[in-house]
Design brief:
The protein is of the alpha+beta class. The protein is built from eight helices and 21 strands. It folds into two domains: 228 residues, P-loop containing nucleotide triphosphate hydrolases (Rossmann fold, 3-Layer(aba) Sandwich); 120 residues, Nucleic acid-binding proteins (OB fold (Dihydrolipoamide Acetyltransferase, E2P)). A hairpin with a 2-residue loop joins strand 9 and strand 10. The longest helix has 18 residues. Bound molecules: adenosine-5'-triphosphate. Adenosine-5'-triphosphate (ATP) binds next to strand 2 and helix 1. Belongs to the ABC transporter superfamily.
């Protein structure tokens, strides 16, 4: 493993910001730390960078214990959300600055700047000042200031948060391509699941100072390991209620509806549970389809999201369910009676209470 966090904890006074964090990242991996505000993502990144000291635990880079080393001796670089470029310096001078701090000789520094500009497509912009650059170009220079030192690890703390949506999407693709070219680990902090899902190999889901899961992004998305992940990643309908057992398998009683659980909870004696189904796995049909095993309701509204639409359905009992899977031949409009269904194998089920 190239970057290892071993049983790291961090307290600020009496507040525990991180506890018992383990993370092992390989040399060519792009890892996102994904979690809500205040969960401890930035603190973890700052501990890797050496901007904070862990209360307990170790940080290893390339086999070396760097826990006691200051940031500039760790061979890491960090890119922040507020990428502060020096306004009175050209792109070239902005990139030269970190190399001067390393006391690199002039010829090597120029060579390094040329290399960095080639990778980041900045060669034609080398003599411009920051105010003569677009937002995306400025962001590339900020990345360049991290990469020009040829770090062993690049740490990025919400670097795209201030960019507009379209530019963000372009930059996501660019940042991922730089990581592949350079073959070093990128550790990317974000609370934006789309960013984490589009760029990463793996996602570490951070919640309340701990890592709830660290896995391939598809596993995090398709098979959430915890209830928190099921709520936080993707968009799901949630059915919470008492569990009833029947010969055909267990089910949740949800506002007068029976949510069949298939094989889920077979080994559990939970008396109540929550089942999550992603909205893209929730199928809506016109009410003239075969109703068996489906949930009946009334289409309340359709929200167009560009590439897909969300169908807001009020089911019998008054609850709302969102569906975004529909057969292309189906025509439904608000007010129409509809049916909802899904593949029970796609439900993520978490027990709430275990019967005594
Ligand atoms: P955000 O997405 O909002 O940046 P985050 O997940 O990065 O959130 P952190 O910045 O790591 O969260 O903060 C985790 C917790 O630790 C927060 O409750 C924060 O208030 C607290 N914290 C961070 N730094 C300090 C500090 N220097 N002193 C005291 N508390 C701190």
């Amino acid at each position: 493993m190239y970057l290892q966090i071993k049983d790291v904890s961090k307290t600020f006074g009496t507040f525990t910001a991180l506890s018992g964090v383990d993370l092992s990242i390989e040399k060519n991996e792009f890892v996102s730390l994904l979690g809500p505000s205040g969960s401890g993502k930035s603190t973890l990144l700052r501990l890797i960078a050496g901007l904070e000291q862990p209360t307990t635990g170790q940080v290893l880079i390339d086999g070396q214990d760097v826990t006691a080393l200051p940031p500039y001796q760790r061979g890491i670089a960090m890119v922040f959300q507020d990428f502060l470029l020096f306004p009175h310096m050209t792109v070239r001078e902005n990139l030269l600055f970190p190399l001067r701090m390393l006391r690199m000789n002039r010829d090597d520094a120029e060579e390094r700047i040329d290399w960095c500009c080639r990778i980041l497509s900045l060669t034609a912009l080398k003599d411009r000042f920051p105010n003569q650059l677009s937002g995306g170009q400025q962001q590339r220079v900020a990345l360049g200031r991290g990469l020009v030192c040829r770090p062993k690890v690049l740490l990025l703390d919400e670097p795209l948060a201030n960019l507009d949506r379209e530019l963000r999407r372009d930059m996501e693709i660019e940042i991922r391509s730089y990581q592949i070219q350079l073959g070093i680990p990128f550790v990317y902090v974000t609370h934006n699941q789309e960013e984490a899902l589009s760029m990463s190999d793996k996602i570490a889901v951070v919640n309340k100072g701990g890592i709830e899961d660290f896995a391939e992004k598809s596993a995090v998305y398709d098979r959430p390991k915890t209830r928190f992940i099921a709520q936080f990643v993707g968009r799901s309908n949630v059915f919470t209620g008492p569990v009833e057992a029947a010969t055909e398998g267990k089910a949740i009683q949800w506002h007068g509806q029976r949510i069949a659980l298939g094989q889920a909870l077979n080994d559990s004696n939970a008396s109540s549970a929550s089942a999550y189904i992603k909205i893209e796995d929730t199928l809506i049909e016109a009410a003239n389809a075969n109703p068996s095993g489906k949930i009946a309701g009334t289409l309340r509204d359709v929200i167009f999201r560009g590439q897909y639409a969300e169908y807001l359905v009020t089911v019998d009992g008054g609850q709302e369910v969102v569906a975004s899977s529909i057969d292309s031949a189906t025509r439904v409009k608000p007010g129409d009676p509809v049916l909802l269904s899904w593949d029970t194998a796609k439900l993520d089920v978490f027990p709430d209470e275990v019967a005594a």
